[in-house]
Write a structure and sequence with these properties.
The chain is α+β, with helices and mostly antiparallel strands. 27% of the residues lie in helices and 24% in strands. The protein has 18 helices and 30 strands. Strands 3-7-1-14-11-12-13 form a 7-stranded mixed β-sheet, with helices on both faces. Strand 28 and strand 29 (615-625) form a beta hairpin. Helix 9 packs parallel to helix 17 (712-724) and helix 16 packs across helix 17 (712-724). The longest helix has 28 residues, at 516-543. The protein is globular and about 85 Å long. The termini are far apart. The structure holds dioxothiomolybdenum(VI) ion.
């Protein structure tokens, strides 16, 4: 076991080069086994009975007809033995039940059925007769705070006290300002809607449960299940070998998993429970929507003097919180800052972490206000930002950053984008006008420095890499194999990977928070170095030389000499006798007095048809400081995917709740508009900025998944403003809104 922290990497030869994914063939050919593909000869299928009302009390559940239907093997309600389980453990605020008779949102779980076929299960679910008492509902978070509004919970509609932050004195700060801008913005409620729906296959072997599940972290799901079922951790095995996207919605354990486990226990047969697309819109999370007012003050030279944010938003029927304030408090140097965010309950599905929770919302507000300040001050928007780049995290007791590439992202991004020329170019005189915009961002979570990895080095020099981390579609397996290859000189196709299986792999943190690469790669590296050390010690003993004079090159042990010597693995006696060398690596702690976080600047060019209000994003450029670029292909994937999601935030995506019925009217992929190939620029550009951070961790990497989506929407809105003079404060930037705004200006 490597106890000493190895020196940080300098130049690398495998890491940083473009390599296809190690599991690309399986993913593309369809041979990869996702949780949805797992099947057993005696497997049953589950369907969930859901409340069709926004707010109702379950009076009576009559399962007698359903139980008599063909193929039905079990029906589960809140009254079934073992099914009265508390839900939302560990959260502050109101709790619920697996099947709560007080249904607080459309789609809340009421009962479940297991049958021989999916069709029989759905038929039977429809035949469960539920008598509801419909209750008055509220689906608008501003309405929810008004006196007399229907109460989602007995304690009222406020989710605790407002979330507050303060430093300095904003009153003094605004008094010192030469220019003040204040504006109110709204942010949309986005649905994660990953390609792979949420679901599980549950199978019991005696008192032990195995679950094939769609999630971002098998150990967290195992923890939840063990707690609910009161089982030892090691009696619950959770496996998630392939993942079709989660974006944060697959971090929490789902009721569907628990339902599959209970039905499987009741029937003594494996049970598969997968959500339909519609269910995935209603019940497994969203990005909480907000109304945010930001007031910002700056001196003539662009120095920020004060920032004040007031927010109101909703996590739905249960607590989640928004977190839009963080970016406002930490992206730019500013001595006087105050934020206050109020979260209210409404009758809608609970929010969940959603790719950079709170940060795209924060950027939508902060970066548009910065744009407006720049115009008022007559300072170029890139320049204004450059004048306020901090070197410390003001939010974290002024801890210095291990590295900050924010200024470089802005400068080198602007250069590569041709910012100056594009900004100076007249917008065009015809009905179709063009404009460019910039927005910056950072990600505020340093991750949990906790990972243990095992590497088994076989007698022929091939490797098994065993790690708990999930590859949620980002290429984690490929990156970690590249780290092994870098240290041990093993070709990628000679590395077999076991991962994301609580039965066989060591513990890992959830693949979320942009932490997967920077938390795990140092542990993988440490495990590889542990293998190398053992191999060299074996060779030293055999060759009777100092281990320090030996190195591992191309599957051979080489002694630098004198005398020079080579030892092939097949001649390494102890390796051949043992047949395996096992290396273990642990993640080292984060630096104590510093903090390592990623930074970003996005640039957008748009074209607006002032007759129709149509907006096209012509160009997007993402300049990112995420530390070392481990895999240029995976890195670009993240940047382009994040930008596409940003287009969705700005231009197409929004949950729409009908205030007359309380129901979501666009719970499907037809009416909920995800951006498609037609909405993204033909050639997005990725500009990696690597500050060669030797302090953040032994690999020098900081994380790209979430930063990639933070400032895109604001950059687009700023470009629309540059093109038209119209400031869009409320998504979506669509022809309807644009035409209205453009028309109003005539
Ligand atoms: Mo993320 S929202 O931590 O998957």
């Amino acid at each position: 076991m490597t106890e000493t922290r190895p020196a940080p990497w300098g130049e690398t030869t495998v890491v940083g080069t473009p390599r296809p994914r190690v599991d690309g063939y399986e993913r593309v050919s369809g041979s990869a086994v996702y949780a949805m593909d797992v099947t057993f000869p005696d497997m049953l299928h589950a369907a969930i009975v859901r409340c069709p009302h926004a707010h109702a009390r379950v009076k009576k559940v009559d399962t007698s007809k359903a139980e008599r239907m063909p193929g039905v093997r079990a029906v589960l309600t809140g009254e079934s033995p073992g099914a009265k389980l508390p839900w939302y453990f560990g959260e502050k605020g109101p709790t619920s039940l697996l099947f709560d008779p007080h249904c607080r949102y459309e789609g809340e779980e009421v009962a479940a059925v297991a049958a021989e076929t999916p069709q029989q299960a759905h038929e039977a679910a429809r035949a469960v007769a539920v008598e509801y008492e419909e209750l008055p509902f509220v689906v608008d978070y501003e309405e929810a705070l008004k006196p007399g509004a229907p109460a989602v919970h007995d304690g009222g509609n406020r989710n605790g006290e407002p979330d507050k932050y303060e430093r300095g004195d904003v009153v003094r700060g605004f008094a010192e300002a030469d220019v003040v801008v204040e504006r109110t913005f709204k942010t949309p409620c986005e649905i994660h809607t990953p390609l792979e729906p949420h679901g599980s296959v549950a199978k019991w072997d005696g008192d032990r449960l195995t679950v094939w599940d769609t999630n971002q972290g098998v150990f967290d799901i195992r923890g939840g299940l063990a707690q609910w079922l009161q089982l030892p951790l090691t009696s619950v095995r959770v496996i998630s070998k392939y993942m079709g996207g989660g974006f944060g919605s697959k971090i929490e354990p789902g009721k569907y998993t628990m339902i599959a486990a209970l039905l499987a226990r009741k029937t003594g047969r494996p049970v598969r429970c997968f959500l339909s697309r519609e269910e995935s819109f209603l019940c497994v999370g969203n990005r909480p929507p907000n109304t945010l007012t930001l007031k910002a003050g700056a001196k003539k030279d662009g120095t920020m003097t004060a920032l004040q944010l007031t927010g109101l938003g909703t996590s739905g029927a249960y607590p989640e919180g928004s977190g839009a304030g963080y970016l406002v408090t930490d992206l730019y140097s500013c001595p006087n800052v105050r934020t206050e965010e109020t979260d209210v309950f409404i009758n809608a599905g609970k929010g969940r972490a959603f790719r950079a929770p709170g940060f795209p919302q924060g950027a939508w507000v902060l970066e548009q206000v910065m744009d407006e300040l720049a115009v008022k001050l007559g300072i170029d928007p890139v320049e204004l930002r450059l004048r306020n780049v901090p070197t410390v995290s003001q939010r974290r007791n002024n801890k210095p950053y291990t590295s900050t590439g924010l200024a470089r992202c802005l400068k080198e991004g602007a250069e590569a984008f041709g910012w100056k020329a594009a900004r100076a170019t007249p917008r065009g005189r015809g009905p179709v006008v063009r404009g460019v915009g910039v927005a910056a961002g950072m990600w505020g979570w340093e991750g949990e420095a906790r990972s243990t990895v095992i590497i088994r080095y076989a007698a022929d020099g091939s490797v098994n890499l065993c790690m708990g981390a999930s590859d949620i579609g980002t290429g984690t397996k490929t990156v970690m194999a590249m780290v092994v290859s870098e240290e041990l000189g093993v070709a990628l196709d000679r590395i077999q990977i076991d991962h994301a299986d609580t039965g066989t792999t060591p513990s890992a943190v959830v693949s979320g928070g942009s932490q997967t690469t920077h938390v795990n790669s140092p542990a993988v590296r440490a495990a590889a170095l542990d293998v190398k050390r053992q191999l060299l010690e074996m060779a030293a003993e055999q060759l009777k030389v100092e281990a320090a004079s030996l190195s591992l090159k191309g599957g051979e042990i080489v002694a630098a000499g004198p005398p020079e010597a080579k030892l092939a693995l097949k001649d390494l006696a102890r390796l051949q006798e043992q047949q395996v060398v096992v290396g273990v690596g642990h993640r080292h702690p984060h630096p104590k007095d510093k903090i390592g976080l990623p930074f970003v600047a996005h640039f957008a060019e748009v074209e607006v048809d002032t007759r129709t209000g149509e907006v096209r994003v012509l160009r997007l450029l993402g300049a990112h400081d995420s530390g070392r670029v481990m895999s240029p292909l995976g890195y670009e994937n993240q940047v382009f995917g994040g930008m596409t999601m940003g287009i969705g935030f700005a231009m197409t995506e929004a949950r729409i709740l009908d205030r007359n019925t309380g129901r979501m009217v666009n719970a499907n992929w037809h009416d909920y508009k995800l951006p498609t190939a037609q909405d993204v620029p033909a050639k997005p550009v990725c500009v990696p900025i690597d500050p060669h951070d030797t302090e953040v961790n032994t690999v020098g990497v900081k994380g790209i998944g979430e930063p990639a989506t933070i400032p895109t929407a604001a950059a687009i809105a700023n470009a629309v403003h540059h093109a038209t003079g119209v400031r869009i404060t409320e998504p979506s930037i669509n022809p309807v809104q644009m035409a209205q705004k453009l028309w109003a200006r005539r």
